[in-house]
Every structure is written in C-alpha cells, then in structure tokens.
Backbone:
C-alpha cells in the first residue's frame, strides 16, 4: 500500500479515530502471549458493533488488506497477532463485550465476542447458572477467542470443549456479510452446520462477533479429591471407575506426574503438596452433585474406598471445604509456573485415546530418555479427555536455553511420531496458529488437508482472513 | 448414458455381480419411507468395504453418474432415494454393518455405516455400556443414516443429537478419496472440524462409511413418570425444575397435547392412558440414576411433590417397574400411529427456544383455528429440546385427503412464518432431503445459503453426491 492514509481514514470513519491505533506502543496487540513473536500491525482497529465489524471487513476486502481477528490475545500458538510485514490489520473485538440476553428457561446466554470469560462465568453464576468453560487464562481471554480456538480446559470431561457449549453464532464473513445464526436451538437440521465450521477455524474463515451459549443449573455441591496412584494404568482404571459410579457427576479428572509435582514443591514450598514419595502419579478428581454435599461426599468416599481396595489408588485426601479444594486445584494449576521457574522447556499439547495414554507415555519417555539422557519429563494434563501436556525439561544443571534451541526439533519429532503412531492429535486444545502450521502440514492426513484448503478457498477466496494461520503459504 | 452396460460391468467388477441390482422389484431402495416418491435407480450398488465404496465413487465420478447414499431408508424427507430419471446410482451401505472395535477405557465404539442402530445399542449394552441414541426407527435405521441426517430422538435432552455422540468419521469424498478421521479423540484442535461438516450433510458432500462414537456407562436405574400439567407454560416450568434438581439425571422430557392423547385412547383403547380430562397437556419424564433405584425414586418424588405444590403439575404417576415404564413411553410413541389411523394430516418438525414454546403454540393454534375452522392440532414432541411435532389433522368428519391436498400449503405458510418469527427451525430433526428444499430456500438466511452453496461447490464440484437433496437446482 503506497499511501495508507486514505485507507486509515476509511477505517476511522467506521469506528472513530480513537479506535484506529497506529502510533505508540502497540505490543499489547502485536506481541503474542508467550512472547515468541512481535509482529507489526498496519493498524489496530477496535469496532464497537457487529455492523462496524462488517464495514471494517468490507473496507479491508476492498483494499486487499488482510485481517487478524483478536480477542484477549492469550493464545498459545501465535494465532492472533499480525506478522512482521506491517500490512495486516488487527481487528480487536474487546470493545464488543456485552452480554446481550440471558434466557433462563432455554438455559442460554447470548454474548458478544469480546466478553471476558470470567465476566461471563460470574454473570451466569449471579443468576444461578453455571457456564462451565474454565481455563487458566479465564481472567483475560474472551469468548470469541475461546470459540475461534475451541478452547478446552478443566471441565471438558463433563461439559465438552467450547464447541459443545455453543448453540449459535453471529459471524461476519470474509465478504463482510453478517450471518445471524444466534438461534439458541438445541435441534436444527437445516443444512450444513456452519457453526461448527467457524468454531475452531482460528479466524481464517470469518469473524465471530457473538454467540449463544449453553448454561447449566449450578451444582448444589462440588468436592475435590487428591489421590496418589501407582501408575498411569491405575489412573486410567480409576477414571473408568469414577465414570461408572459418578457418570456426569465427574466434572474434573487431572493427572500429574511425580516430577511435575516435585517442581511445585521446589518452587512453591508454601504449597502443601500431598503424597511426597515414589508414587508415580497423582490425580485431582472433582465431583459435582445436584443433591447435597452429604450425597456427594458419600459417592466420593465410596469411590475412593473401592479404588483403594482395587489397588488403583494408594492414598487419597478429600477437601473438607472450598479453600482446601482450591488449594488442591492450585497445585495442579501451578505446574506450568513451576516449570517456567525451573527453566525453559519443550512443550507439547497432545491427545490420544484414553486407553492409549499409558503406552504412549511409557514408550515416548523411553525413547526420549535414550536419545537425550537426563532429560526430565513433565507429564500432566486432562486425563479424562486423553489430553496430556507432555513437556520436556533440560537435564538438571544443563543450559536450558541451549537445550531448547538444539533439541526442540528432534524431541518434537519423537513426540509427534508417537502421536501419529497412536492416531492422536498434535494439538489437543491450543490450536495451530502460525506456530504449528508446519507440523500440521507434516502430520495431518493429506485428504483432510485437501478438504480444509478447498473450504478455505471457497469461503475466503482472497485469503484475507488471518492468512498466516493454519496453512503454510 | 447411451449404453449402461460397460458402466455396470465396472460396478460389478468392484462389488461383485450379485451386489449390482438393476432388475426386479427395487422398491425397497427406490421408494421412500413415507411412500411419497417412487424413484428409479440406474442401479442399486451394495459395497462391502470402504475401499469398495471409494472405487464405486471413483467409477461414478469418471462416468459423470450421480450417487444417492442410503442406509436403512427410514428418512422422513425423501433424502435417500433416487429421482425418477433412472440415471442415479443408489449406494446402499447395509452390507457394511460390522462393529469394528470397542474401547472400554476410552468409552468409544467404532462401527460401520450400515450397522442398524438397535444392533449397536444391544452390542454396547452387552458390554455394560449405553449408546444413548434412541428413536422410533431404531430397528431398521443405520448409523450412517443417523449421522448423515444428525438424527435426534428421545434422549437428546441429556446426550445431544447424533452429532454430539460422534468423535470421528471415516468418509469417502466426492473425489473417491478415503478420509480416515476415526481417532476417538475427545480433543483435537488441528484445523477445521470436517466431522461436523459431514454430519448432517445428507450425503451431499461425501459418503460416511464408519464412525467412532461415544458410549456411556449404563445407568443403575431408570424411572419414568407421567404427569398432567395445566398449560405449556407449566410444562416449561416443570422442565426448569427438573433440570435444576436432576441435572444430567434428566434423560427424557416429552410433552403431549390432550387431543394427541385422545387419538391414542380412540385408536388404541387397550392402552391405559392416564389423566383423561380437560388438562391441557401431559408430560413423560425420565430419570436415569447412577446410584440406585431408591435414590432415583427419592429424587423423582421430591421433584413431583414440589411441582404439585407449585401448581405446575396437576397429577402424576411413577412407573413401578420396567413394564409400566415401557407402557408410559408407549403412549407417547403411539401418537404418530394414532394420527395415521385418524387420517392423513399435515406434519411439521419444528423447533424454537424452549422459552418460546408456549407463545409459539398459542399464537399458531389461534391463526390456524381462525383460517381453518375445525382443524385439529396434534401437538407433541421433545419439549426438553424445544422440538415439537406440530401436526394438523383435518376437521372431524371432513375429507382428509382433500384437506391435505388443498390446505397443506397455506397451513405450512402459517407455521413456517411463525417459526421464522420466533427464530426457530423448519426442520429440527428430520432434515431437508428433497421434500423440504424449497422451504429451505424460502426460510434459511441468504447468507447461510450462500455459504452452504460455496461449500458444496468446493467439496463436490461436479455435483454428483446426492444432487437432489438440500439445494434447489
């Protein structure tokens, strides 16, 4: 673009001059969450309504300018920041943050894309409802970003991913048209499910501007247990037992390797991490109950008793109150921070069938240990969904920066080859963004990639919607 | 096609001569379930494996021949039978009926498209698991058809539509390639969700050949209640109460208008239909429990007591045993047959937000009563999902055939205008097929239709996959 000014004037006419940012420190929009890439935006544009979004998209289409939609900018895979060219517009949705309507009888809430997840959780809770999506970034991530990346988190075992919580979308297409699909219907078989196509498409097909989401009645009681188990096999056995006895009452099931827990003990000594010792893994287990706390406690104690007798649990504690429950969950949530304190490390967000988790970990651990003696495996994640954060820390005392620089590629190769062998996913909940698009091209089936490319070409023929994400050029 | 013989020879070489049917009575494949249209197939082809399906699709593509995939041929909207031209191949999947694998720890089962739903239900139950999809045609419909049409049924309030029960697909694309997406993963954010695009696409984008589906542990106890309620408002209130007290324990919630029940009493007098009288509606309510029958009974009795006090229930019975429960469900399931006995009628399968059901019915009833004095409204359906079978029976003693012939169009116009006013769906669970494609063109948003057409063109550029379904020529 020779002279940007007329284009910027057009944008200013749509959203107002104060909402077209081109000067000063724009790193809040240009730098990704993990501080891996610092891009350069042509402008950061902050529309306040769906019609403004549509007009911005039309203006960009007319000028041949690419758009990068952005919510809370908390993604893990550099998918919502501009590239370094200075030619892309960042479309920030954070001013569109209203809860439009809540329909108690339909158990739905309609909310704009820029609404922060925690605000939505709190608004629902105030009315006696649960919006179950829950993840580490909930204080700053937005619903639009959660939908665009199909965010996961800790309640998936019961409530599914963001995808499963969405009944309808409002979307601005690549042509700048508004599709109003905010129906709130639980059944609608009138053609292709466009909703699920936009969910998880990472802004490459259009801009999600609002959504109608499911709410649930608040549980009467929630209890948390922390148990040590002798092996991952035992953890899978415990999961099966819990599902059999608790059904939908099982709302959380996380696993943590002993080395991951030892890092929490080391870097956060004020935390009281139970079961220090040789036990291979620990589990955090959450029960939600619609009857009473006494009923929940009875179910949980029965479960743990049976598991102790079966030998799939070695020891267990049940939180006596909410602050104890929070403390137990806090151990699990502190693992990424403890890892960061320990030093740079190589991260993976993989999934396989739950039944394959033990074999996957045993084999992959062995391959890495053989190829990189001393490498320390930090294993934890959402076992109930088959989703592990399988991370590798440099050998003790070694140069973590050099380890990351030199060994990330070969270690990735081992891990992703194993994922492929077990028909797993190289990105269970974080998405592809720009960071993993090369790996997607390597590991996704060519037939699936061909279908994806055909859809992209059909819905975004000029390739202006987040063009750097998902696909290699 | 001047000379069909070389093409038929190619097909015979792929699937074997006995599986290419061209002679004799082919009405099992050519006539739709509701006997509305009798088409004429070029051939009925019955492949036995995914690779045979792929080769048949390739042969058809090479010859420019259209394909109509077919499962149990139990669809309601003439979506799986050939047109009258004699130029379309019916691709019957019923020989591909194996259950390939069951993974207890992953709670998944991988099954071929032609497997009959009831066979899958029974195979799961034998291993201690529930496959919850349940609908009237379950004895003959197939999983492939359930997926292609995103079938609904009576358990959606808890377990969702077929879509929500599917973790992975195997699909033969329009180009005859095989996409193996049978991962069984609960989390996989690696690009567009192709699975959800094929589910519900009614064979217009490719052929579903197998699927990996969710199973659930079998409930320990299931209880059924039958309650009379003073109004639809009261039914919606009862639903809210039930969801609040039972959460996921509520696995069925059906509503039936008193006139619908009177037809069951009239045509099936051996059935003991409770609560004859002036009460406007009755409800069938099902509770599934993971603890015990005593626990379930306690929950259900508490719920009904509170509802009686609130006035949203007038009277209720709870089944004492399984045969009583079956009898209560049987009343609900007998309504379509009782309607048929009463005479031809005008059917709708609509959904609106649950909160809008009372207004929708009151207003639409009034409009029809005014325009067609004496017309009798048969209202029943899956209230928990906002899905009503809103049917209209001719005035008593009048000529039902003439009524259907002359009044279907204007009555449809009233009903679908109301659906549009309430942002509902003109086809909640039956799909579009060829029967409703004109209505789809009238009532679906032009933006959504444009996106659908772009996707169809991208994935089936030669328009050979079930070309008569969904879209008008």
Residues:
């Amino acid at each position: 673009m020779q002279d940007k000014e007329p284009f910027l004037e057009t944008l200013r006419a749509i959203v107002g001059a104060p909402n077209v940012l081109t000067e000063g420190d724009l790193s809040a929009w240009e730098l990704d969450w993990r501080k891996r890439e610092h891009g350069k935006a042509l402008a950061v544009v902050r529309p306040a309504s769906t019609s403004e979004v549509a007009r911005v998209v039309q203006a960009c289409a007319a000028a041949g300018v690419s758009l990068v939609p952005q919510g809370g900018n908390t993604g893990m895979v550099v998918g919502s920041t501009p590239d370094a060219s200075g030619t892309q517009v960042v479309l920030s949705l954070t001013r569109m943050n209203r809860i439009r309507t809540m329909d108690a009888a339909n158990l739905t809430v309609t909310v704009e894309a820029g609404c922060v997840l925690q605000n939505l959780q709190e608004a629902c809770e105030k009315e006696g409802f649960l919006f179950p999506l829950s993840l580490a970034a909930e204080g700053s991530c937005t619903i639009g970003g959660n939908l665009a990346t199909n965010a996961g988190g800790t309640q998936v075992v019961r409530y599914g991913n963001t995808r499963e919580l969405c009944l309808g979308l409002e979307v601005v297409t690549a042509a700048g048209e508004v599709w109003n699909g905010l129906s709130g219907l639980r059944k609608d078989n009138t053609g292709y499910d466009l909703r699920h196509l936009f969910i998880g498409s990472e802004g490459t097909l259009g801009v999600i501007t609002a959504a109608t989401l499911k709410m649930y009645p608040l549980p009467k009681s929630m209890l948390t247990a922390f148990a040590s188990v002798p092996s991952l096999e035992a953890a899978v056995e415990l999961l099966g037992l819990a599902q059999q006895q608790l059904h939908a009452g099982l709302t959380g099931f996380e696993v943590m390797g002993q080395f991951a827990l030892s890092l929490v003990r080391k870097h956060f000594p004020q935390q009281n991490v139970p079961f220090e010792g040789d036990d291979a893994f620990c589990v955090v287990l959450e029960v939600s109950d619609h009857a009473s706390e006494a009923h929940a406690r009875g179910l949980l104690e029965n479960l743990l008793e049976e598991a102790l007798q079966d030998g799939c649990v070695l020891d267990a504690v049940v939180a006596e109150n909410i602050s104890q429950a929070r403390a137990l969950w806090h151990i699990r949530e502190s693992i990424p921070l403890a890892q960061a304190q320990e030093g740079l490390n190589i991260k993976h967000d993989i999934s396989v069938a739950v039944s394959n988790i033990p074999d996957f970990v045993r084999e992959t651990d062995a391959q890495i240990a053989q190829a990189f003696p001393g490498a320390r495996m930090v294993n934890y994640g959402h076992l109930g969904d088959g989703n592990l954060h399988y991370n590798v820390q440099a050998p003790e005392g070694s140069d973590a920066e050099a380890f990351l620089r030199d060994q990330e590629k070969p270690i990735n190769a081992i891990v992703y080859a194993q994922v492929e062998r077990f028909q797993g996913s190289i990105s269970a909940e974080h998405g592809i963004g720009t960071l993993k698009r090369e790996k997607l091209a390597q590991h996704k089936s060519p037939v699936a990639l061909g279908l994806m490319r055909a859809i992209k070409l059909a819905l975004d023929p000029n390739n202006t919607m987040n063009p750097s994400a998902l696909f290699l050029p």
User: Anything to note?
Assistant: The first helix of chain B runs from residue 5 to 15. Chain B touches chain A through 93 residues (CB under 8 Å). The mean pLDDT of chain B is 96.
